UniProtKB/TrEMBL annotation:
UniProt protein name: Peptidoglycan bridge formation protein FemAB
Record family assignment: Belongs to the FemABX family.
Pfam families per UniProt: FemAB
SUPFAM superfamilies per UniProt: Acyl-CoA N-acyltransferases (Nat)
Database matches in InterPro entries: Acyl_CoA_acyltransferase, FEMABX, PG_Glycine_Bridge_Synth
Organism for this UniProt entry: Nocardioides baekrokdamisoli
């Protein structure tokens, strides 16, 4: 297996060949390199012979005071045939990156380990003896996920995903709605009574949701104003509006459906706004914002339902509501997020998580200590 640099055009062309693959993440598109300007990026190709068999977008994070030494991060990737033998590909990837100065490689294979139905999650929250999602017997398990986990451990890779589900990287647990073969009525019937009632109320109150491909700077500014308001209310640090403009421009350069804005208005007031991302058969609810006033018109429910219907219309196989924590303890503040997402129907999904392969163990250990102290 040869791993070598490829052009952004070659990278994108390979992804376009896999356009129906719901496992290809937007974090592995060439556009994402243009969004993450604080990282040095490169597109790599995997060549078992003459034909390209996989790609990786690698983001290099420099070590403070050691600028040429980096953590080589492959978010939600690389893009490989994970059902096959990937050991040679990962070994070759590590060798290439070590030669370029990486002290460790971090990957996040988009491989499912297990899933749980909405009903199981609800029962788990109600059961005092259940503290975590993994205390429940999964509704499905994936042999490929279990096999890969075993192989990564045996090869010296170290799991980095935190126990509570959220950390500096990408979430190991997500909430997703399968769409393939389903109708709008199927999806609506799968929601809980509260969600259906709120969607109906939003419609009765006159909430209007507009879908915008890309969007103007004014559209993005409207989203961002509401997003900053949401950040102040919910106590998180918002990104600047320039970040979203760069994200829009980079993604739209690859496909006019890659980056979309959804704006929910009530009597002229913006009550909810979201960013929706699509790559092939996978769609994501990427960012969201909502007004504190007029919450009773249920703009957040209306805008989610609009995005789910858009994903179905676009032929997507998955609508991804992104990360959840695995905790099911009602006393944990994160349970509210799970309950909101569970109301949509769908399923909780566990992936194999993010893994590090230390290439220079002392620097890797020092880096972990530095990150833990921040």
């Amino acid at each position: 297996m040869i791993v070598r640099p490829i052009s952004a055009a070659e990278h994108l062309a390979y992804l376009d060949q896999r356009i129906g693959d719901a496992s290809v993440s937007f974090l592995q598109t060439p556009a994402w390199a243009r969004v993450k300007t604080e990282w040095r990026a490169e597109s790599l190709g995997f060549f078992p012979g003459e034909v390209l068999s996989g790609v990786a977008l690698v983001l290099h994070r420099p070590v403070p005071k050691l600028k040429k030494t980096t953590l080589a991060y492959v978010p939600e990737g690389p893009v490989l045939d994970w059902e096959g033998d990937t050991a040679d590909a990962l070994t070759s990837l590590a060798a290439y990156l070590k030669k370029g100065g990486a002290f460790a490689v971090r990957i996040g294979p988009p491989v499912v380990v297990a899933t749980w139905t909405a009903e199981q999650v609800k029962q788990g929250i109600a059961d005092e003896s259940i503290a975590r999602l993994t205390d429940l017997t999964p509704s499905t398990t994936n042999e490929a996920g279990a096999k890969l986990t075993t192989e990564l451990k045996a090869a010296g890779w170290q799991l980095q995903s935190p126990e509570d589900g959220f950390g500096a990287g990408q979430p190991q647990f997500t909430y997703e709605i399968p769409l393939a073969g389903r109708t709008e009525q199927d999806l609506l019937s799968g929601m809980n009574q509260l969600w259906r009632r709120n969607i109906k109320k939003a419609d009765k109150e006159g909430v209007v949701v507009t879908r915008v491909l890309g969007g103007t700077d004014d559209d993005l500014q409207a989203f961002h104003d509401l997003y900053v308001h949401t950040a102040e209310r919910d106590h998180f640090t918002p990104r600047g509006v320039t970040y979203f403009k760069v994200m829009r421009d980079a993604m739209q350069s690859e496909s006019n459906q890659r980056f979309q804005l959804f704006l929910a208005h009530h009597e002229g007031d913006l009550v909810a706004a979201t960013i929706y991302v699509q790559v092939g058969a996978h769609t994501w609810y990427s960012y969201g914002a909502s007004s504190t006033e007029k919450r009773d018109v249920r703009g957040s429910n209306a805008i989610q339902w609009a995005m789910i219907r858009a994903a179905l219309e676009d032929g997507a196989a998955v609508y991804d509501l992104r990360g959840i924590t695995p905790t099911l303890d009602p006393a944990d503040s994160h349970v509210g997020l799970i309950q909101f997402k569970v109301g949509t129907g769908g399923q909780a999904v566990q992936y194999v998580g993010e893994w590090d392969l230390p290439l220079r163990p002392l620097i890797h250990k020092a880096f972990q200590m530095y990150m833990g102290s921040r």
